Every structure is written in C-alpha cells, then in structure tokens.
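Researcher: We're teaching a course module on how sequence relates to structure. For the next exercise, students receive a sequence and then see the predicted structure as tokens, so they can try to spot secondary structure elements on their own. Here is the exercise chain.
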Amino acid sequence: MQRTIPLLFIVVLLFTSSCVKADEPVTLRVLSYNIHHGEGIDGKLDLERIAKVMLAVKPDLIALQEVDNKTSRTNKVDQAKELASLTKMQVVFGPNIEFGGGSYGNAILSKYPIKKSQNHHLPNHENGEQRGALSAEIEIPGVTDHLTFISTHFDHRPDDTERIASSKYVNHWINKLPNQPMIIAGDFNDIIGSKTLSILDKSWTRTNPESMPTIPVKKPTRQIDFILYRPKSRFTTEETKVLDEAVASDHRAFFSVVKLTPIP
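Model: And here is the predicted structure for the students to work with:
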C-alpha cells in the first residue's frame, strides 16, 4: 500500500529548506580584471580566453576595465555584451572616451539583477584620457538594501594629481551614503602607501592589507588592481588572491571572496 505524505508537511518542508535567516551573511565572489581590450601579451585578440579566466573562480560580480565597444581595433564587437553572453551574466557598460569608431571604458558583469547603473566621469587634468567610475545597484538575495558595485580605472601618468583628485571625488560621492553597502574594484594605477590609496583608505577597506602584485603580468612586482568595501562593519574578507594566468591580458586578474552582513 502506498502511503501519502500530508500536503501541509510538504509545504512546511519546502519553506524551511528555502528560508534564509535575515541576518545570515551572504558570500560574494568578486573579480577585478583589466582585460586590455581582450588582447593578450601574445598579440591574440581572444574574448573566450578572457571569459575562461573569469569563470575559473565562479564570480558573482566582475569589474572590468579597458573594454572596447564596437571599435575598429576589435572588429566592431560589443565586448561587454559578448562577455556577458560567454559568462551568462548581466552587464552594464560605461563609455569614457570615443575611440576607433566606437567607445572605450569600464564594464560590470553580475550574476544577480542589476537594478540601475550610472557612469561617473572622474576629474580630468591637463587633457588626459577621460577616466570613469561605473556604478551599479545590485539586488543580492537575502540583503534588503541594494549593493552598490563600482568598476573604475584611474589615470596612469607619473604625476599623481589626477589620481588624487579621483580618490577625493569617489570618497565625496560615496560618503553621502554612509550606510549603503558598497564595493569598488578596478585598476587604480597606484600602490599601497601612495597618496591615491591612502585617501581611499580613509573611507574604504581593502581586501588585502599587504601588497599582492598584479603587474607586470609575467612576473608581477606591483599591485595596482584592488577590491575595497564599505562600511567595514558590514563586510569580512574570506579569501584574496591574484589569479595565476599570465597571457590573456597585460594585468593579472584580482579576486576576493567577501561576506556581506544584511541589516537585521
């Protein structure tokens, strides 16, 4: 004789198995990668190779820099859209300069829904390349307030005037939202101990206190790619590493696992 499981028991079982405690920390796997418009140090343009590097760490959020959008040098491909297709993630792109018949800038890929985004142009000094900070509001399951995720790329010139101004700009912008959980990731073109990073350290916490070199890609000696979060009370760092891949781009990808505590 076949026994029938009561319907009420099934409903209760399904509810309890899917229910997440409101104060349970949420794990986020975050990657920052300057992809050099998909061109490796071997001279090959290969977005599939870039996607494989990223997928190797099963990321939830990816901050990309040096992304081409329909430029002549990269065969008129919308690189952000193509990488979203290859990784099966949502995407937003932030153009900062017109280039080669298209545009060039930063992008964000997300496993979770992107509710809205905004591209901020950073301070520009002495007619340098326009830099930007692309922000997106991400809806994280189990977190009632949206996470603000930012992908950025600071100026590269030896004079740090513009980088310092960019750090101050970012801090002023985000300090208007002191309780909002935020992560900023990207290529800051400066090192720990520099004025650029010291200013950011006033409002952000780096996922690595000590240097973890990301460039030059073959034998890295300097870290200029970072992941930072705020407020400190909402986050903890579980893991941080530089990916062991030295061909796909001229930077190594930088990866962190963090835990975000929801508001009780």
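Model: If you want an answer key for the exercise: The first strand starts at residue 26 and ends at 34. The domain at 21-260 is CATH 3.60.10.10 (Deoxyribonuclease I; Chain A).
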